[in-house]
Amino acid sequence: MSIPMPSSADSLPTPAQGYVGRFAPSPTGPLHAGSLVAAVASYLDARAHGGRWLLRIEDLDTPRVMPGAEQIIRQQLQALGLEHDGCVLRQSERHAAYQNAFDTLVRDGRVYPCACTRREIADSLTRAGIQRERNHELVYPGTCRHGIRDGRVARAWRVRVEGHCIDWQGRHTNAMHEDLAREVGDFVLLRADGLWAYQLAVVVDDAEQQVTDVVRGADLLGSTARQIYLQQLLGYGRPRYLHLPVVLDEHGDKLSKQTGAIAIDTSQPVAALNGALSHLGIAPVSAPSLAQFWPAAITRWAESDWMKT
Ligand code: GLU
């Protein structure tokens, strides 16, 4: 099937159209040193471009959401002087928008129901002698692509990615090339537990919020091609992407709320923020207050290599 792809050059927003950035934490726990880096860098980049900085709470994955975490995150941001523009967008309230995008994909024949369990996918890959797994995600072998076998019940919905290679260039990454069919396979948009998948929600929200620049951790580099692919299918523009070095724990693993990363200490806000700057290779700002810290930090960011793209 050949899919008409809008050229990225046509759809790429330019700063002249007005920079819009965002910070999109999942409220699975308080902000820790890793998520603070994404918050600080996305904020500095937006302010250094004279742009807007939006806050989006990615609370779709309800089994992972920690009650009260959104309030804690918002208090932490406030204590650090990270003031967002406009209203907070909460993904749990956006079912209709995701359904709408999904209906477009159904209408265009891009998605199909899938009855496979993870176990069955693993077994069929083993039988075919294929070891295809990336970040613990199995590359879907396409079992249900031409219909669900009799007696089986649809669990999830997947988008077809036959033969799609995605080329993209991040603001600070080498040219990227991803063969989606080989490296990911048809991926899930509506999960077996009835929840919308992150990949669909993030693309719909970035488009609707007119985000021009996505600044986030490099752990999400591997999701970007899937998101660009969905943008193409849905006729959305492509934001610019800036991926940041991930903060690792003492075992070399990404700091995460699930593995108990410590909440940042906002009683010493300048010290906490300087920790994030230092991770980004920016010299600490010696300032007695947040009011003096932020303008100096924005100037440092504006003069740094991060802005040279
Ligand atoms: N919600 C994601 C996280 O907390 C970030 C998603 C994104 O920036 O695209 O890791």
Structure description:
It contains ten helices and twelve strands. The chain has 309 residues and is of the alpha/beta class. The protein has two domains: 9-96 and 209-307, Rossmann fold (3-Layer(aba) Sandwich); 109-190, Glutamyl-tRNA Synthetase, Domain 3 (Glutamyl-tRNA Synthetase, domain 3, Alpha-Beta Complex). The strands form five sheets. The protein has a three-stranded parallel beta sheet. It has a three-stranded antiparallel beta sheet with strand order 4-7-10. The protein has a two-stranded antiparallel ribbon with strand order 5-6. Residues 1-16 have low confidence and may be disordered. The structure holds glutamic acid (GLU).
Measured by DSSP, the beta-strand proportion falls in 15-25%
Number of strands: 12
Task: Summarize the biggest pleated sheet.
Answer: 3 strands, parallel
What separation lies between the terminal Cα atoms?
35 Å
Helix content: 25-40%
Structural class: alpha/beta
From the 3D structure, determine the CATH topology of the largest domain. Rossmann fold
User: What is Rg?
Assistant: 20 Å
Overall mean pLDDT stands at 90
Unreliable stretches (pLDDT < 50, length at least 5) are 1-16
Supply the number of structural domains. 2
Dominant shape: elongated
- CATH H-level name of the largest domain... which superfamily? HUPs
In CATH terms, what is the architecture of the largest domain? 3-Layer(aba) Sandwich
| Ligands | glutamic acid
Question: Which sequence of strands runs across the widest sheet?
Answer: 1-2-3
Q: How many helical elements? A: 10
Following the backbone from N to C, one meets helices and strands in this order, namely HEHEHEHEHEEEEEHEHEHEHH
Query: CATH first level of the largest domain: which class?
Result: Alpha Beta
